[in-house]
Structure formats: C-alpha cells, structure tokens
Design goal:
globular, mainly alpha
C-alpha cells in the first residue's frame, strides 16, 4: 500500500541538501559497523525514492515489517543528531545550550569550579544576545552549584544570584504575557479578519487592554519591546487603524536596525516586522515609501551576511513576492504585475511542502485580483476557483467571503451569466453562514440580482446610483474593509467612464496619493 508522501521521515530525508546528506553519511560511517546497517540502507532507499512507498521498502528486503517502525525512528534520530552537528545549523542559542550542557556534565562529576566558570561565560553570552530564558536557566543551575560549592564569598554571591533571578524572572513573565497576547490577537485575525462592528471592536479592545501588562519602558530590553510592538500591531490591524500599524511596525523594524546582530539571531521576526511594515504602507497608499522599504528589505536579504535556512528562505519568498504584487495594486499598474504570476506559480511548486494553505490562498487571491484589474476575467475566475473549491480551508473567513464576491463580479464581467442566479444564491448562503454579510456586500448582491431588469440604456445611471450608495461606506470604520479586498467603487467607475479598472485606480492615485 502506498502511503502519503507526508511521512515525517520521508519529508525529513527529502529536505536535506547535498552537504547535509554527505555529513550524515560521514557521521554514520565513523563507526565501521554502520556501513551496512539497516537504517543507513533505508536512508539510501528513501533518498532515491520520489514518493514514500512502504510496500517498496518491505519488498527491498532491507527490513521486516515488524522492524520498520523502530528502524525509521532510529534513522530519524540519527539524522537530527547529524544536523545538530552541522555548522550551518549552529547559532548563538546552540552555543549557549552546548555550554550549559557542558557545565551540567562537570557539575555531576563534582567539578564545581569548572562548571561555574563555563556558566558565567554562557550567562554573559545569553544576556548580550537577549536570551533571557536561557540566562534564567543558567542562574538556576548556578544557585544549585553555589549551594554545594562553599566559598568565602557565598553571602554576596547568593545575593547577586537572587537579584539576577528576580530580574530575569520578571522580564520573562512580561515577555511571556506579551507574546501570548500577540499570538492570541494573530489567531483572531486569521480566524475572522478585521473587526466588523461596534460589538466586535469593544470585545477586542477589552481583550487587549485586560491582557496588556503594566511595564516600565525604560527597564525592558529588545525582546520585551519586540513582543510589545507586535501586540500593539495586531490590535491596530484588527481595528483597521493603519496609521497605528505603521507606527508600531516601524518601531519593530527599527529595533532590528538599531541592534544589527539581532537580525541574524531572529531572522523570522525581522522578516515578519518588514512584512507588517509594508502591509501598513500599502494600506496608506504611499508608493514611494513602499518601494523604498521593499527595496531595503530585498537588499538586506540578498546580502551574503544574511543567514538563510529553509524556513527563512520560505519567508523571504513569501514576503518579497506578496509585496512585489501589492505595489501594483497601489497605483493600478495591473498589466505590469501580470508578469510576476508565471514565475511565482513555478516557485510555489518548489515551496509547496513549506507553505501552508492559508498563504497559498493569499497568492491565488492576489493573482485573481491582478487578472481582474487587467480585465482578464476568465483567468481571475480560474485562480479564485482554487480557493472556492478547497473545502478544507478554514482560516481568514473574510478572504474566503471576498473571493466569492469577486468571483460573482468576474462572472458578470466575463459575460458568464447563464448560471448567475445559482451563483448569487450560493454566494449569499455562504456569506450568511459565515456571518459576513455587510452593507457593501448586500448592495452588490442586490445590484447584480437586479441587473437583468435594467434596460441597457439605463445601465450607466444604475452604476452611478450604486457608486453613490457605496461611497457612504468608503470611510466607515467597519464597512471600509470591503474595499481593502475588492475596489468595487473603482470597478463601477470604470463601467461609467468606459475605462479600465487600472486607468481609474491610476488616476485616483495620481490625484490623491502621488507626491
């Protein structure tokens, strides 16, 4: 029976590059008895296989069925040990952890003085790199050793350790509360998107204020500021306060450039901070600033000094491509943006095992929006179908809803109105089910439903009337989110003025936003 290719061991083997495979074989080969071991033979078989096929493994005679689970577990462990020894996977954290392990071994051998000496160096390294959880762990071991290794300075030393322990414990609690709050707000954003009404706004505001710890800004360090800015950032995004988003995302990125060594130590947070910053500027429609910050990010990640593992490389791919597309939405340069789609689609295949369905969905929506803006409605529908037909998607309900609204408009524009009634009904039912039917969407569905009763020569007036009704919601604190996903007003104006959506948006940008 052929098993899912997502088998954990198979995925791990396939993630290894040539250097890592070579090191694994050298690591295993250090012991002569391993040269023909079952786990090494299994590794070689999996390395050559294109899919995980358990029956093929058993037919190869490498292992018996009863042995397979144990051999797989042993191979998995040996690969991880080999990767741990690989210099490319070692950083400051692994160095501190290694020193802590050495100190622990020396302590258990009764070599207290040597252990304390290593711990002191490890603690300095942890503190200078904002690894306060590790610093606290080191201090706790120091306290244990000092209690057994009696010296004349034990009294003053005990006081020092107690003060340090209290300080780091307090900072760790603050960081934990802020990281919890940030994660919980991010979860709300993924599940439901922006706040939709006064009730949700009040609930999220109370949730945020109740969980925001009191702190002295002068006493907190890099890590606490990082989580503080992220918590404020997610609250601002939920409330659609994009000026506040820009403020806190700028602070988040600036603390990295003020502490350059933290970029390579925390590359994920650095990249996410830049992603939030670019998203904020995008919503503020400042293309010169957007282009400046996007180029600054690309210059940093393309520098040889910027460390990239598989995870970081995936995030670089996501964020640089998301925002390379976004810059074309700001000024309506959709035709130029279309050139990005083929390459990104090819790269999506390469990264498919590392990108979650949520981020794939965002790419498809952006592709669809580019095609719609360029007037390629059938291509727009094709991309949207990848979202709508995927029944397993459960995140970003707002994006799921607007995919259906855009799908409806694209079908109308493409002249595919032979089953428009059934599409209207299914869209309406979905929005009701998701509790996401808002005034802008109601007006749109009502308008499209009534199109068949409007005479061709009255169509332009009907578009004008709808524009006037929708403009009331353009700056509404909760309804305006509709226009973040789909610029309905620009589409309607394009119908009225017989111009492309791109031309309308470009003219608006030049009039309102261009310097």
């Amino acid at each position: 029976m052929t098993k899912d290719q997502k088998d954990n061991l198979f995925s791990l083997v396939k993630s290894l590059n040539k250097s890592e495979k070579r090191q694994f074989k050298l690591y295993v080969g250090r012991l002569g008895v391993n040269t023909d071991s079952k786990f090494l033979n299994l590794f070689n078989l999996l390395d050559k296989s294109k899919v995980y096929d358990e029956s093929a493994i058993l037919n190869s005679g490498i292992v018996k069925k009863q042995q397979l689970a144990n051999v797989k577990a042993h191979l998995y462990k040996q690969i991880l040990i080999s990767l741990k020894l690989n210099p490319s996977h070692q950083n400051v954290r692994s160095q501190i952890r290694e020193q802590l392990d050495f100190a622990s071994i020396l302590y258990h051998k009764g070599l207290y003085k040597q252990s304390l000496k290593i711990l002191d160096k490890a603690k300095s390294l942890a503190i200078s790199n904002e690894e306060k959880n590790m610093a606290f762990e080191i201090i706790e071991l120091e306290k244990i050793i000092e209690a057994q290794y009696i010296t004349r300075s034990i009294s003053s030393r005990a006081d020092e350790l107690v003060i340090e322990a209290k300080e780091f414990s307090s900072l760790n609690v603050i960081a934990s509360k802020l990281s919890n709050l940030s994660l919980q707000l991010y979860s709300i954003m993924l599940k439901t998107g922006y706040v939709k009404n006064e009730e949700e706004s009040a609930t999220v505001t109370k949730y945020f204020n109740d969980r925001l710890p009191k702190l002295d800004y002068k006493k907190i360090g890099f890590r606490e500021k990082l989580w503080l800015y992220k918590a404020h950032l997610w609250y601002s995004f939920l409330m659609q306060d994009f000026l506040s988003c820009y403020k806190y995302s700028s602070k988040l990125v600036d603390i990295f450039y003020d502490n350059p060594k933290m970029i390579n130590l925390n590359p994920v947070f650095f990249l996410k901070g830049n992603n939030y910053l670019l998203e904020s500027i995008f919503y503020l429609r400042n293309k010169p600033k957007f282009t400046e910050k996007l180029n600054e990010l690309k210059e940093t990640v393309d520098n040889n000094k910027f460390n990239k593992d598989e995870n970081v490389s995936t995030l670089v791919f996501l964020y640089t491509n998301f925002h390379s597309i976004n810059q074309h939405f700001i000024d309506g340069s959709f035709e130029e943006g279309l050139a990005l789609i083929p390459k990104i689609e090819t790269d999506l295949v390469k990264y498919k095992d590392r990108i979650d369905p949520h981020h794939q969905m965002i790419f498809y929506y952006k592709f669809a929006s580019l095609e719609f803006g360029a007037g390629n409605n059938k291509a727009c529908i094709k991309h949207l179908d990848k979202i709508i037909s995927n029944k397993s998607l459960s995140m970003r309900e707002d994006l799921l809803c607007f995919s259906r609204v855009l799908n409806l408009v694209a079908h109308y524009e493409a002249g595919l109105d032979y089953h428009l009634d059934s599409l209207l009904r299914s869209t309406y039912k979905f929005l009701i089910k998701m509790n996401d039917l808002h005034e802008v969407q109601k007006e749109m569905i009502k308008f499209i439903r009534g199109l068949q009763d409007i005479y061709p020569h009255d169509l332009k007036n009907a578009f004008k009337e709808l524009v006037e009704r929708l403009k009331v919601y353009e700056d509404h604190p909760f309804e305006r989110r509709s226009f973040l996903y789909l610029d309905i007003i620009s589409w309607l104006e394009s119908k009225i003025e017989n111009k492309s959506v791109g031309e309308i948006i470009k003219n608006k940008y030049l009039t309102k936003y261009a310097p």
